[in-house]
Q: What sequence folds into this?
């Protein structure tokens, strides 16, 4: 499975970066290959200063070796080896009418001292962070997510949609990071579901990522905007930074387990503002977004 | 002591904000009084869009009540009441030739169920974060810090200077946040030092804050700079954000114990950039700063 899934994300990275380059039209992804001292490495692809994408990354990595102590404590295990691979992407568009998107698809294996697999699971998801809310965009993103889920079981969409709202909750602000999507973790084989079944589900979602996001970008990328809207986007990007640095488990794991910093922090937006005690005008478009972030909605 | 120190920081806040307004010349601090639901509150003073200070805050607070669970776990105690008060300031100048500064002076008491004081201590310090290194400024800041320490004991400066370098270490970047200063915590009465002795020391340092910082501001605030230097300042401010949100105990405590978010996060800079894998030109002024941040120096 580790080889199968790694080959899959290699191809997916090619497919996604090619499509996004075509959407942007101006700049290409720059690639960095890196090695992890303790085992494994990655292929980071970053896009900057595009016509559409101001900054973004579509990264894959496959790392292995002895499970670092911070992760041993987290998983409550001792003296294990591990293998982890995944694709992780974040795109920060220039135009505040185009939402930021994040997606991640990952696979994890743990081994005992005799190198037997003692645990294995998939995780991942995709979620959208608009600066201005176009309800039809939110509905589109969630519908595509639901279609992918529905092929693999009842209530998968409902379950993972709720997990997404829970996970991307900026608790110190009492608001969601964005308008959600899907979030799943520790998907392990059971009596009713083989590892292959789970692989089929995860890759189904991943295969539909471009369909979920690109039509929204195409629809909004040429809308005009003014400086105040750009300021609002940069202020909201500050909340994105707060979530990723204070709450996001993936980011904190990376920082505490000697991951490649520049690949982990490619998720941070290019230009960000913090204004003291900023509140949008009542009944403005900005206030309408906040309302939805304060109490997540059902979109389909 | 709690009343004595609170009166002291009330006056100190007045003194510092008056002086900084005079230095800025354009804008005044805006004041917000806030109450904490569980007990106590604060007086937040924020300056924004000044000629000299792009954003900053000089805040005092005094909070009390039942010790929140997160802090019980941190201090490894159960069912205590507490009182905490302090002054906390961060100033982000507009001109990249003027360093950012942070200072904090705080006092903490813990009580048992019969309301007896079971523990009490002072903490605090001051530290400087330049974007361009003027060695004479670093020397000045450290000399004033040392003078304040030397009146209260041998090796205090050396001890607290080293603690400062240790504390403000951005471990995931393997570099210091700035060029240091003083950091002390859990200063408790001993056989040789009364609580009054410690109060005298902490207020000595606090009284010299303006002398440590303002001459540097006056010297650099009218230097000219160009956009590339401003970009560098905004990129370095990103590291400041990373430290405060990932590593700073005060910030994380505040966020996890229901503190007033806007008062805590006033420390975040107004305009910030994250560029992928940014490295300054070899032998540039920017590279020279990084060298010093990678291996903290002795300045006096």
A:
């Amino acid at each position: 499975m580790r080889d199968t899934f790694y080959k899959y994300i290699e191809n997916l990275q090619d497919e996604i970066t090619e499509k996004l380059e075509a959407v942007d039209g101006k700049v290409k992804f720059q690639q960095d290959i890196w090695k992890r001292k303790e085992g494994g490495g990655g292929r980071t692809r970053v896009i900057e200063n595009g016509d559409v994408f101001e900054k973004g990354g579509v990264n894959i990595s496959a790392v292995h070796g002895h499970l670092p102590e911070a992760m041993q404590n987290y998983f409550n295990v001792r003296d294990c080896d591990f293998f982890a691979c995944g694709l992780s992407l974040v795109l920060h568009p220039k135009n505040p009418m185009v939402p930021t998107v994040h997606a991640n698809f990952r696979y994890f294996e743990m081994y005992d001292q005799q190198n037997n697999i003692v645990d294995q699971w998939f995780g991942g998801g995709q979620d959208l962070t608009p600066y201005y809310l176009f309800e039809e965009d939110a509905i589109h993103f969630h519908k595509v997510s639901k279609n992918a889920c529905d092929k693999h079981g009842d209530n998968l969409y409902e379950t993972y949609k709720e997990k997404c709202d829970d996970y991307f909750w900026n608790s110190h602000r009492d608001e969601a990071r964005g308008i959600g999507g899907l979030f799943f973790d520790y998907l392990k084989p059971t009596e009713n579901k083989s590892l292959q079944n789970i692989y089929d589900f995860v890759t189904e979602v991943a295969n539909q990522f471009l369909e979920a996001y690109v039509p929204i970008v195409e629809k909004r990328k040429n809308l005009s905007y003014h400086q105040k809207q750009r300021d609002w986007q940069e202020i909201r990007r500050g909340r994105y930074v707060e979530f990723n640095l204070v709450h996001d488990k993936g980011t904190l794991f990376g920082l505490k387990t000697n991951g490649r910093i520049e690949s982990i922090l490619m998720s941070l937006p290019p230009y960000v503002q913090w204004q003291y005690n900023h509140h949008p005008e009542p009944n403005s478009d900005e206030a309408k977004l906040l309302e939805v972030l304060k109490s997540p909605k059902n979109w389909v």
Observations:
- DSSP finds ten helices and ten strands in chain B.
- Residues 2-294 of chain B form a domain with the oxygen-dependent coproporphyrinogen oxidase fold (CATH 3.40.1500.10).
- Chain B touches chain A at residues 32, 46, 48, 55, 57, 172-173, 238, 241-242, 245-246, 252, 255-256, 261-262, 265-266, 268-277 (CB under 8 Å).
- The beta strands of chain B are 30-35, 40-48, 53-66, 81-93, 100-111, 117-129, 169-170, 175-176, 180-187, 271-273.
